[in-house]
Amino acid sequence: MADLILELFSEEIPARMQAKAESDLGTALEKALGEAGLSWSNLETASGPRRLTVVMDGLTERSADVKEERKGPKVGAPDKAVEGFLRGAGLSDISQAEVRSDPKKGDFYVAVIETPGRDATDIIAEAVPAMVRGFHWPKSMRWGTGDLRWVRPLQRIVCVLDGKVVPFEVDGISSGDETEGHRVHGRGPFKITSRKDYESQLSGAGHVKLTRDARRDVILAGIEKVCAEAGLEWIEDKGLLEEVVGLAEWPVVVLGDMDPAFLALPPEVIQLSMRTHQKYFAVNDKKTGKLAPNFIVVANIEATDGGKKLAEGNSRVLSARLDDGRFFWEKDKATPLEDMAEKLSTIAFKAELGSLGDKVERVAALAYELAPKVGADPGLAERAARLAKADLVSEMVGEFPELQGVMGRYYALEAGEPAAVADAIRDHYKPQGPSDSVPTAPVGIAVALADKLDTLVGFWAINEKPTGSKDPFALRRAALGVVRIVLENENRIQFRSEFTNHCERLGSRDESGLWIWGYDPTSKYSDEDKGVVSSPQTLIENSKDLASDLLSFFADRLKQHLRDEGQRHDLIDAVFALGEDDLVLITRRVEALGTFLDTEDGANLLAGYKRAANILKAEEKKGDLPADLSVNDALIAKGPAEEKALAKALSDVEAAIENPLKSEDFTAAMAELAKLRGPVDAFFEAVMVNDEDSAVRANRLALLAKIRGTLHRVADFSRIDG
After folding, report:
1. For 605-632, how does the pLDDT look when each residue is reduced to its tens digit (9 = 90+)?
2. Is residue 578 part of a domain?
3. Shared domain check, 111 and 125
4. Is 85 found in the same domain as 22?
5. Strand 2-10 and strand 51-59: pairing?
6. Could you tell me if 508 and 361 lie in one domain?
7. Is there a domain that residue 175 lies in?
C-alpha cells in the first residue's frame, strides 16, 4: 500500500470556484483510478488561493489481473458470425477460443481474455494529464504558447507516490516533488516525500493553512478575539466568510476604524460597501446593538506592527468608498420620491407590456384591490405600489443594485411617508429566494403580491412562459414567492378571479382614453405565430383560459413547496381537480388527506374506491352506463344486508360531511369518510355487481357511482397513487 499526493499549483484561483474545484478534482481522480482497478483506504481534498490538493492513503500499488470470458457462436456457425466474434474478442484465429458444450444448445465457442494488472505509477501517469486537460472551470484561460486551459496559469504539478515522483508532463509542465508556500512568509520551495512531510512543511515554514476548515477556524477565532477585546459583536455573514476563506493562505484578523461621521449613512450602505468592495466584516457595538465605526479585515500577511498600518490603509480605502455613498445619499434625498417615480415611464419593462411606469400603474390598481383581502388599507397599499419602484432611478441603487427597495424605504421615510408605506416599499421584492423571509405587514403583503401577480399575468398574456429549464424572467420564483406569502400569512385569495380580472385590466383604458400599457389596441404586439394576443379585446376574451393555465402553473409551484415539506404531489393534484384556487384551503385539504391516507381506514377506503372506479370506467367504455344513474331505494331494500348497509352508510356520510366541509374542518370530514371503509369492504366481499337482473346491476352501479361522488366531495381520489 502506498500514499499519493497530487497538488496542482497555479496563480490565484477565484475564491468562489475553489470549493467546487476541490470536490471535482477528488471525484475525477476517484473515478479514473477506480475504473483502472486501483483501490484505497482514504481520500482527502484541499483547496486554497493557489492550489488544489488530493491525498490518497492506502493506495494499491498495482491493479489486479482480470480474466474475462466472452461467449461466442455455435460450432459450425456461418463464417461471418465467427469472424465478428474473433474481432470482438481480439483473437486472430478460432483455434485460440475454447469449445464448450451445453446439453440443450450443443457446442459453442468461448474466448478467455486475460488482461494483466498495471502498476499504479503507470495508471496515475496516464490518468492525471487527461484529468488536467479535461478539467472544467466556469471560466478558464490560455497563456504563453501552450494549448492548456486552466483557471489561471498552472505553475507546478506535485505528484508523489510512496515518496517517488510519478513522471508525466502537461503542456510543458513536468510533474515533480517540490511545492511553494506563502509568497512572503515561506515561499520555499519545499521537497515533498510523504503526506506528513507535505502537511508539516506547508503549515510550518510554508505558512499555509492547507484546508478550508483550518483557515475558517483561524478566521472565526480571530474575529472572536478582536471583538471581545473591543466590546464589539460580529455581524455574521456566512457568504463573506466562505469568500475570505478562499482569499488568504495564512489568514490574520485585523480590526480597523472608520470615521464615525459615516454612521449617518443607512447601515445597509455601509455594510454593502464593506462587503462588496473591500471584503470587510461589519460589527455592532455590543452595548447599543447598532453599527460601530469599525470593520474587520482578514489579511494574508502577518505584519510586524500587529496590523496597525494595514488597518490604517484599509480605513483610507473604505473612506473613499463611503464618501461616494454619502454623495449619492445626499443627492437622492434632494429629489422627491414622486419625481423619481415619474422617470419610470422612460424605462422599458417589456415591449409588449409597456414601460416600468405602466407596470407601476397596474400594480397600484391590483394592490388597491387586494388590500382588503389581506387586511391592508387600500389607500396605503396603492400609495406604496406607486412609490415601490421609484428608487430604481436613484444614484444609490445605480451604484448598489442590491439595495432596491431598501433605499426606497429610507427615501420614503425622509419624505414623511407613513411607516407602513415605507416598509412595503422595502419588502415588496420579498421573498427573493428560498431562504428569504416573506412580508408579514398587510400593506407589504398587498404590494408584494400585486407586483408578482402582475408580472405573471402579463407574461402569460404575451405567451412568454417558462419552458423546460429556461426561465429568463424568473417566473417560477415569482409564483413560488406568491405561494409562500399566501401560505405563511394564511391569506384567503381566489386566484382564478384575480387572474381574470387583472388580465382584463391589461386591456383597459385610463382616464385620458389611452390603453394602460401605452399601446394602440389595433396594433400587433407580437408575431401571430407565437400565439400572442393581437388586441386587448382578444386578451379579455381569452382571460379564462389564461387564468386556468396560470393556475396550473401555480399548482406545480405548490407541489414543489409542499413536497419540500414532505407532502405527496398526487394529493395536490387530487385537490386541485376540484377546481379550488384558494391555496390556503388547498393546503389544508392536502394535509388532512395525507394524514387520512396514512391510516389503515384511509388506505383500505382508497383501495375500495379504486375498485368501484375501475368497474364504472369499464362500463363507461362499453357505453352501458346510463347518464341518469341513480340509486333505487326499493331495489336496495330487496338486496342483501351488505348492500343495504352501504347505501345507509353513504347517505349518513353525505349528510355528516356537509358541516365539516363548510367550516373547513377537513380532519372531521375525513373521519366521517373513514366510516365508509367497513361497509365498502363488506359490499365487495359479499355482493356481485354484475347481477343477471339488469335493473339490479344498474342499481349497484349507481351505488358505486355514489361512492365515487361522495369521496370526490373531498378530493378526486382517481388522481391518488395506490
Report:
1. 998 899 998 888 888 887 766 666 788 8
2. no
3. no
4. no
5. antiparallel
6. yes
7. yes
Q: Supply 279's cell numbers.
A: 471584503
Cβ atoms 10, 150 nearer than 8 A: yes
**300 and 182 housed in the same domain:** no
Residue 497's pLDDT is 87
Does one domain contain both 110 and 123?
no
Q: What CATH number does the domain containing 486 carry?
A: 1.10.3210
96 and 111 Cβ atoms separated by less than 8 Å: yes
Q: What is the rounded CA–CA span in Å between residue 479 and residue 496?
A: 14
Angle 532-537-538 from CA coordinates, rounded to 5°: 35
Q: How confident is the model at residue 624, as a pLDDT?
A: 62
Tell me the H-state helices in 334-377: 337-342, 356-370
SS3 376: coil
Is residue 329 domain-shared with residue 343, that is, in the same domain?
Answer: no
Comparing CA positions, the residue from 92, 4, 10 lying closest to residue 49 is 10
pLDDT for res 63: 87
| In-domain check, residue 313 | yes
Segments of the chain scoring below 70 in pLDDT: 507-542, 624-628, 722
Q: 179 and 145 in one domain?
A: yes
Per-residue confidence (pLDDT) for residue 545, from 0 to 100:
80
pLDDT in tens, 18-69: 999 999 999 999 999 999 989 999 999 999 999 999 999 999 999 888 788 8
Mean pLDDT (the chain, rounded): 89
Provide the whole-model pTM: 0.76
Q: Is residue 345 part of a domain?
A: yes
Q: How far apart are CA 94 and CA 85, in angstroms?
A: 9
Please, are residues 195 and 5 in contact by the beta-carbon 8 Å criterion?
Answer: yes
DSSP string, 89-139: HT-SSGGGSEEEEETTTEEEEEEEEEE---BHHHHHHHHHHHHHHH---SS
CB 107 within 8 Å of CB 74: yes
Coil, helix or strand at residue 703: helix
**pLDDT value at residue 521:** 39
First to last CA, the chain: 52
Residue 334 phi, psi (nearest 5): -80, -10
Give the relative orientation of helices 378-387 and 356-370 as an angle to the nearest 10 degrees. Answer: 160
Which pLDDT value is given to residue 627? 64
* pLDDT at residue 150, as a whole number: 95
Give the closest residue to 181 by CA, choosing from 3, 6, 9: 9
**Which residues form the domain of 77?**
67-115
